[in-house]
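Hi team, as promised in this morning's meeting, here are the two structures we talked about. I've kept the exact order from the run log so nobody has to guess. The first one is mostly here for context; it's the second one we should focus on when we meet again. Sequence first, then the predicted structure tokens.
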Amino acid sequence: MPTIQVNPAISPAQLYAFYVRNNICEARYAPERAAEVLRHPSVIVAAFEARTSPRASRDEEGDELVGIVRALTDGLAAAIMELSVDLRYQGAATEHRNGSLIEGDEAGLGARLGAAMLAELAARKVDFISAYIVANCEEPFYEALGFKHNAGHLVYYIDRRPYV
């Protein structure tokens, strides 16, 4: 079972290999650009699995990253920027085959990561936590963590990502 760590050292190579292996959109950036998220987060909770096979490329180092949650916070509110789980831990019934969509949590790793992040934010006395999720896909997972749909709010955004 993977170990969970709060604010661990994650190398850019570990993160990028995770994105590529799990078909996560940030894999479409160059490795250096995708690694920007490691320089700016307020809180990271990650899951690692000890490497047991020689399948790791020479660009990867340390244990294998198998899940990550990133949140930005100002001390009062927080936004979950990413909650991604390795597809191997989600189960076979995933339609989209994208690790950034939590369609299943067969191994319970997503729940463990989410609970660890929520506990860390509670310890920091953060009172409002938001997350953007994919409709008709991730509701059961986030509701199981305690999130509720905020029907009174609309989302406005500017999206300049090159892969959209």
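And here is the second protein, the one for discussion:
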Amino acid sequence: MPHRVNVMLDDEIWNALRKIPRGERSRLVNHAVGNELQAWRRKKAAQRMDELRSASKPVSGSSEVCIRRDRESH
């Protein structure tokens, strides 16, 4: 279900957007916002992984050994 929103655009962006036919503006803005949100989520996920990596202790042995050990413990 579509939602109508009000946003503030810089003059330069608005002037460029006005050149796009009305029926395509929403599609363009929706696509651009979707791409930016995906990039933002990925950036946040990478930051969280970096935080977890720096907070955890190094594990001795290979990752294969650690995974096998973990699987066998369940």
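Starting points for discussion:
The chain has one domain: 11-72.
Residues 11-72 form one domain.
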